[in-house]
């Protein structure tokens, strides 16, 4: 795989080519890894064409590649292993704007487990887990630009008179249904990120407004 696999939209766009999509469908439905000869015969295209498209699918992270001898023979004279393709183990999740319901689920599950083990309220455990995760994310980018890191994580930050407003909530649907719980979790997550990235300029506060995330990053000097 190359750097393009960092963008799931680019990877999935590779399936827009009809021949490539037919090859992909054939490989993922096969019970065993598929070679170039088998794939080209199944789809009815020349072997070089099949090889080109299969390799492109592998580059985009949509297929995995293994090498093995189809004859079952080993040792000298057994021949070179064949290049075979199978469904990638990578999962693709695409949403516009970016949503991270998987992350919310992981945090909620971890909070419930901690609450059961320690007896602390689930809401407190959730805040602790969210802050801990945010701090780890921030520490991995310590010293980097805060706005850039927020952008990479789907918050769509916008600077407004020194305040950073977040144009997107990665947990939007959950926040609509469980506002206090999810917005509180999000605040702890962002506050932990600020702490981990070693930014002493901002703090995360809850300031809900239409069309924006409920969390706002406020300069310390602006706090009452």
Automatic annotation (TrEMBL):
One Pfam family named in its UniProt record: HTH_20
Protein name: Transcriptional regulator
């Amino acid at each position: 795989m190359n750097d393009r696999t960092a963008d799931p939209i680019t990877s999935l766009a590779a399936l827009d080519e009809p021949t490539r999509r037919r090859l992909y469908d054939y490989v993922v439905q096969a019970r065993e890894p598929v070679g170039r000869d088998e794939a080209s015969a199944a789809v009815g295209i020349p072997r070089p064409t099949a090889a080109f498209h299969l390799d492109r699918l592998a580059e985009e992270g949509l297929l995995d590649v293994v090498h093995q001898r189809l004859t079952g023979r080993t040792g000298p004279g057994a021949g070179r292993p064949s290049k075979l393709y199978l469904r990638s183990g990578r999962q693709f999740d695409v949403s516009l704007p970016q949503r991270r319901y998987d992350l919310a689920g992981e945090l909620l599950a971890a909070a419930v487990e901690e609450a059961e083990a320690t007896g602390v309220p689930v809401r407190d455990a959730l805040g602790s887990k969210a802050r801990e995760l945010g701090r780890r994310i921030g520490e991995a980018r310590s010293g980097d630009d805060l706005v850039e890191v927020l952008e990479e994580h789907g918050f769509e930050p916008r600077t407004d008179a020194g305040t950073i407003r977040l144009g997107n909530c990665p947990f939007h649907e959950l926040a609509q249904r469980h506002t206090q719980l999810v917005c509180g979790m999000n605040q702890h997550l962002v506050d932990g990120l600020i702490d981990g990235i070693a930014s002493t300029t901002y703090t995360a506060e809850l300031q809900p407004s239409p069309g924006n995330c409920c969390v706002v990053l406020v300069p310390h000097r602006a706090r009452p």
